[in-house]
Amino acid sequence: YFTYPKTRYKECPLLYELQCWNAIPRYPPIDERYGGYTGVFTALLKASANALNKPEQLDPENGLVISKWDIVNTNNYPNLDDIDAVLLTGSKHNSFEDIPWINRLVEFTQQVLAQNRVRILGICFGHQILGRAMGAKVGRSDQGWEIAVCDMELTEKGKEIFGLEKIRIQQMHQDIVASLPQGVTLLGHSPRCAIQGMYAPRRFISVQGHPEFTEWMETEIIQTRAKTGVFNEDLAQDGLSRVGNEHDGVAIGTAFLKFLLEE
């Protein structure tokens, strides 16, 4: 989960993060390099803030304040009056599961959607939770896993928001948002996933892929899942053959920051 800068209320913009901390699978090499998953998003957002190059609105070094929340084991959530935006992150869990902490997460997301100040960013599992909170069907894709760098064909609104004709993004999912919620704008699609991004002005923006993943991170995950039998050899080798392709993670992160900063 994430939250965003109170630029409309404070001279110094702040970015808070509400993260599905214990929902995310732990990869020791990633923990060692980044200090945990919070560090992964910190790296992306700092790079994106530098690319945005608007220090008067968002200082890349001092304008990002990140907090994490254990919503799996403690069921603690922030008061909406204390935050400005929420980032729903990826997870090892299934967004469609009928279990207490995921149901509570869906309820919290609905509470955020019911007001008009706090904004939402959704990534992978978070994209799916956002869809579920709005009544969309979420579940396993009949196309199987989508992994490594893949093309995301953009709609006209997607091209406008991301400033690109097409996006390349690291993927790591087998679950999807299967139907577009009413009143929501589609941002893009791929052969394996019809709803790759969703948007509503000043309310939320989401992508199915992982703009925060680097080549090294994606490689670690693919190799780990191949060793544990989650991925067969053909799938793993196909992913590893594309994992080093150029991708647009920072461009996506920059678009997210623009969305959060816009009046």
TrEMBL record:
PROSITE patterns, alphabetized: GATASE_TYPE_1 (PS51273)
Protein name (record): Glutamine amidotransferase domain-containing protein
An annotated GO cellular component: nucleus
Domain Glutamine amidotransferase, residue spans: 79-215
UniProt-listed PANTHER family: GLUTAMINE AMIDOTRANSFERASE YLR126C-RELATED
InterPro entries in the cross-refs: ChyE-like (IPR044992), Class_I_gatase-like (IPR029062), GATASE (IPR017926)
Pfam family, one: GATase
Database matches in CDD domains: GATase1_1
